[in-house]
UniProtKB/TrEMBL annotation:
Pfam families assigned: ABC_tran (PF00005)
Family: Belongs to the ABC transporter superfamily.
Record-given protein name: ABC-2 type transport system ATP-binding protein
Organism of this sequence: Actinomadura citrea
Annotated ABC transporter domain residues: 2-227
One Gene Ontology term of the molecular function aspect: ATP binding
InterPro entries in the record: AAA+_ATPase (IPR003593), ABC_transporter-like_ATP-bd (IPR003439), ABC_transporter-like_CS (IPR017871), P-loop_NTPase (IPR027417)
Keyword terms, alphabetized: ATP-binding, Nucleotide-binding, Transport
């Protein structure tokens, strides 16, 4: 389990992480979401002692990282796949990590095989593709067979096979009872991978709930309809009890009416329909609504759903 208590990190007069309290439970994949600059990486770095908190604390299994004799056996992390000496082979890199944490040499070959790098163990890490470096980083996280694992954007640079592999790996680590804490910007992938979500914005907690609850709290199922006479159609749909939102241009999002009903109302009103379809409730839409006010860099108008 990972416990964050009032965790705060200031850089100058700016709080990158701002009084964050959270428990990341064992036996689940917990997705860690938030816009760019929300403080996800900084939070993870504090858990493994790479950044020192300005206030509060981050504990793994009730202890601080600095108090652990063999930290890699308790918490493994993929934080920056580029942080490998380019002149070292994959094997040499992992052997050095193993030695400093009292981990048997044989475990190095084991984790290299687990991540699919067994054919390139002697090759210098500097020649690796981004996907291979991600795999090497994951091997490093798994090296000490820890009960707690953190992955910062693990599918970055991976091809579709690699993405599915990471998803299965996360699920199986959680099924073994481990704590799996993973950040990602890919909402559809996260929806398939995580059981639970912690969402932050500007360093503060916005949501800490099971995936199903986060999605249910979002805009939910809706009907998407596009018409050159969207204004007229919106009036008719509202009169029939629909909650109508203008989604930019000719498009409307309608909640509370079935797709067939929307089609019939348009027909009765003599309004042309260019597109009509159901929109499934998704993490992406729920996330957009949750974080809308916390996005630091981004377009502001005309993107609404
Ligand atoms: N060493 C540093 N010095 C100064 N500011 C920093 C430092 N590290 C991070 N920050 C700032 O802290 C804030 C949080 O950054 P962080 O990388 O933790 O966000 P993130 O949620 O991981 O973002 P992304 O999704 O883009 O990776 C940002 O505004 C960033 O510029």
């Amino acid at each position: 389990m990972i416990t964050l208590r009032g965790l705060t990190k200031r850089f100058g007069d700016r709080a990158a992480v701002d009084g964050l309290s959270l428990e990341v439970a064992a036996g689940k994949v917990t997705g860690f979401l938030g816009p760019n600059g929300a403080g996800k990486s900084t939070t993870m770095r504090m858990v493994v002692g790479l950044d020192r908190p300005s206030a509060g604390e981050a504990l793994v299994g009730g202890r601080r990282y600095g108090e652990m004799r063999h930290p890699l056996r308790e918490v493994g992390a993929l934080l920056d796949a580029g942080a490998v000496h380019p002149g070292r082979s994959a094997r040499a890199h992992l052997l050095a990590m193993a030695r400093s944490n009292g981990i048997a040499r044989g475990r190095v070959e084991e984790v290299l095989a687990m991540v699919g790098l067994e054919a390139v163990t002697g090759r210098r890490a500097g020649t690796f593709s981004l996907g291979m470096r991600q795999r090497l980083g994951i091997a490093g996280a798994l090296l000490g067979d820890p009960g707690v694992l953190m992955f910062d954007e693990p599918v970055n640079g991976l091809d579709p096979d690699g993405v599915v592999w990471v998803r299965r790996l996360m699920r199986s680590l959680a099924a073994q009872g481990r704590t799996v804490f993973v950040s990602s910007h890919l909402m559809s992938e996260m929806q398939l991978t995580a059981d639970h979500l912690a969402v932050i914005g500007k360093g503060r907690l916005l949501a800490d709930a099971p995936m199903a609850e986060v999605i249910a709290a979002g805009p939910g199922n809706a009907v998407r309809v596009r018409s050159p006479r969207a204004q007229v159609l919106a009036g008719r749909l509202a009169a029939a009890g629909g909650q109508v939102r203008h989604a930019g241009g000719e498009e409307l999002r309608v909640a509370g009416l079935a797709v067939e009903r929307v089609g019939l109302i348009a027909f009765e009103a003599g309004v042309p329909v260019l597109e009509l379809g159901a929109v499934q409730a998704s993490l992406e839409e729920a996330y957009m609504e949750l974080t809308g006010a916390s996005v630091e860099y981004g377009a502001t108008a005309g993107t609404g759903v």
